[in-house]
Design brief:
Elements lengths: L2 H29 L4 E4 L7 H14 L2 E4 L9 H13 L3 E5 L7 E5 L2
Parallel strand pairs: 1-2
Antiparallel strand pairs: 3-4
């Protein structure tokens, strides 16, 4: 691959991923009947993703809240900390899913 072709492939992949993420955001807003969206995590640091979210917010007329870039980091540490706290509290998590858009997640007592 030439450097330009590689850049084109990477940009196309990025846009395809963003298409899926934005479709999921749109679906969640409609399903939950919400008019606001909070976005954080590592992907929220991406300038192109932020622009696409802003475009979607204008199109769908919802309020968008994006964390400042300095707080948009990988969520692995946060997830591990939440898991540790849950384990310390002896919480059990129930996850039932056959498709990613049908995930039901809740903490159970005991």
């Amino acid at each position: 691959l030439t450097p330009q072709r590689l850049a084109d492939v990477c940009a196309s992949f990025q846009e395809a991923v963003f298409d899926v993420l934005l479709a999921k955001c749109r679906q969640a807003l409609r399903k939950c009947q919400r008019r606001d969206l909070l976005v954080g995590g590592g992907v929220a640091a991406n300038g192109r993703f932020r622009q696409r979210l802003e475009d979607l917010a204008r199109e769908e007329r919802f309020e968008l809240h994006i964390s400042p870039r300095e707080y948009c980091t990988d969520n692995a540490a946060m997830i591990a900390a939440a898991g540790r706290r849950g384990r310390a509290a002896r919480a059990r998590a129930a996850i039932e899913a056959t498709r990613s858009d049908l995930i039901m997640f809740s903490f159970l007592d005991g």
